[in-house]
Amino acid sequence: MKKKVFLTRALQDFALKELKKRYKIEVHSGKSPISQDKLQSKIQKIDGLICFPYDTINKETLKLAEKLKAISTFSVGFDHIDTEFAKKRKIRVGYTPEVLTDATADLAFALVLDVMRRVSEGDRIIRQGGWKIIYGADDYVGLDLQEKTLGILGLGRIGKTLAKRARAFDMKIIYHNRNRLTAAQEKKLGAKYSSFDYLIRQSDIVSVHVPHTKQTDQLINMKTFKKMKNSSFLINTSRGKVVNQKDLVTALKKNIIAGAGLDVFETEPIDKKNPLTKLENVVLAPHIGSSTQETRDKMAKITVENLNLGINAKKPIYSVGY
Ligand code: DGY
């Protein structure tokens, strides 16, 4: 009898076809994420689960998963899964790092360019019929990137790749990370280590690349914004919960900081009533860090392979825990 695999959302056709060859699959349909109640009822009967960053795979849910052997998430982030408890229950957890590094670093850099050169703001002005004067000397002025200091908070794969992008734009790069690079690695990357505090105070742009954990929850809050320069920008392509969103809105409204480029939010999706949508000095993206055709296809392939291995009690290609 075929093993049962449940997907909380469909993957690309080629991936579903692969899964169907081996498993009896069921896919949650509809635009909204599956409810916790429904997930808890499904998880009792399945051998494998494919999930997404907005699902909550917590201890209460995992306790019900009597047959479950593998969880494979279509994301590099796995803060939505209680991986410790999964490990205790010998459930393998796979995720999709590496393949999305370039795409996510590109998006972070796109947000830097957009918010500093006011591209989306200009787009909105034109669409609303507000472009009246040609080439006014100080109309829609943005800021140069060269010589600005980019502070990279969390120098993992994506942070390092962002540093490469920034170097090509002649930016100065400082970083803060749990582990410091060797002097040779720092030289190669063109990035200088700094304390968290120095980075926050000195950067013209602070780009967040730390995962969401107990330690990084609301790491960026009003205290942080008050230390940042009034002229500085915050970029977040990591997880919304690393930033206190209410404080961010206040900081942007009161010009405590100059602007923000955001791909992630405390709760997603945000709707048009969200105060962030009323602010001109913010560029908003709908959590599309990894969303390029090439990257998403690679992610789907790895998601399936991780599941195939985990469901057979083998270590996924990219494995959390064990
Ligand atoms: C992930 O994979 O966790 C990212 O948030 C995708 O953009």
Structural class: alpha/beta
What is the H level of CATH, i.e. the homologous superfamily of the largest domain?
NAD(P)-binding Rossmann-like Domain
> For the largest beta sheet, what order do the strands appear in spatially?
8-7-6-9-10-11-12
* Portion in helices: 25-40%
**Quick one: how many beta strands?**
13
Number of domains: 2
> Which small compounds were modeled alongside the protein?
(2R)-2,3-dihydroxypropanoic acid
Strand composition percent = 15-25%
CATH architecture of the largest domain: 3-Layer(aba) Sandwich
Largest sheet: 7 strands, parallel
Can you give the mean pLDDT? 97
Radius of gyration, CA atoms, in whole angstroms: 21 Å
Number of helices: 12
Please, could you describe this protein's structure?
The chain folds into two domains: 3-97 and 294-311, Rossmann fold (3-Layer(aba) Sandwich); 101-284, Rossmann fold. 36% of the residues lie in helices and 16% in strands. It has helices spanning 13-22, 36-43, 59-63, 83-88, 101-117, 119-127, 157-168, 183-189, 196-202, 222-227, 245-253, 293-311; strands at residues 3-7, 23-27, 48-51, 70-73, 92-94, 149-153, 172-176, 191-193, 205-208, 233-236, 259-262, 282-284, 319-320. Strands 8-7-6-9-10-11-12 form a seven-stranded parallel beta sheet, sandwiched between helices. A six-stranded mixed beta sheet has the order 2-1-3-4-5-13. The mean pLDDT is 97. Bound molecules: (2R)-2,3-dihydroxypropanoic acid. (2R)-2,3-dihydroxypropanoic acid binds at residues 53, 75-77, 100, 104, 287, 289-290.
